[in-house]
Every structure is written in C-alpha cells, then in structure tokens.
Design goal:
This protein has helices spanning 19-30, 74-83; strands at residues 9-16, 36-38, 41-46, 49-55, 66-70, 87-94, 99-105, 111-117. The chain is an alpha+beta fold. It has a single domain (9-117), classed as Roll (2,3-Dihydroxybiphenyl 1,2-Dioxygenase, domain 1), CATH 3.10.180.10.
Length: 118
C-alpha cells in the first residue's frame, strides 16, 4: 500500500498584479532575497516554507492564494480526494526540476493544491 499521507502545507502561491512591487514587500516581510526571481515567478524559501508570487493571477486564474499540500504520490492523492468528492481543476504536471503540481476544488469550490518533489 502506498503512503498517501501529506507532509503538510509547505507552499503558498500568491497571485499579484505588480510582481516587482510584491517582491519588495515579501522580501521585507520574510527578511530574505528570493531564491527564484524570474519575470513569470518569484519564489522565497523562509522558515521551511516556500512562498511564491505569480503575476497576473497565474495560469489557473487564481484570485486568492492557493496552498499546496506536499505529498509523496500526487496521483494517488488526487484519486483519493476525487473519490471523496473533490473535482480536479488542473491535472498533475511537471513545473520544472521534476516537481509535479496539481489543483482541485473542494465541494464549495475552494482551490487546493498538491505538490510532489521527485
């Protein structure tokens, strides 16, 4: 049997309208420079969490932050949550470096994310 437990929420992506302005605020808030600093994404590692800034609301059309639960097997967890009533919003896909992400909605339409590092 595969371990489908989560490792907790370790990643939160915030949609932003002005990436440069948001980067300055989050740098001041977190007290660290961004680990990833691109025109399409700015990411910080702070206190064991990953905080990401996604310009223009991101590819999912996010309008509020999305929390990402870290899991050892993203496909197994997607199957588990959909069997329980969730709806897949964005299927698992590689976002670089072997990292897989997916999003789903709970019965009330809240968007939740899953993340698996290979």
């Amino acid at each position: 049997m595969t371990d489908s437990s989560t490792q907790g929420i370790k990643t939160v992506l915030h949609p932003v309208s002005d990436l440069a302005a948001a980067k300055a605020v989050y740098t001041a808030l977190l007290g660290v420079a961004p680990q990833a600093d691109e025109s399409y994404y700015v990411g910080f590692e702070a206190a064991g969490q990953h905080i990401g800034l996604v310009p223009g609301g991101g590819p999912q059309g996010m309008s509020s932050p999305v929390t990402y639960w870290h899991v050892p097997d993203i496909e197994a967890k997607l199957a588990e949550v959909t069997a329980a009533g969730a709806t897949v919003k964005e299927p698992a896909h590689d976002v670089g470096g072997g990292r897989l992400v997916a999003t789903f909605t709970d019965p009330d339409g809240n968007v939740l994310g899953l993340l698996q590092d290979r």
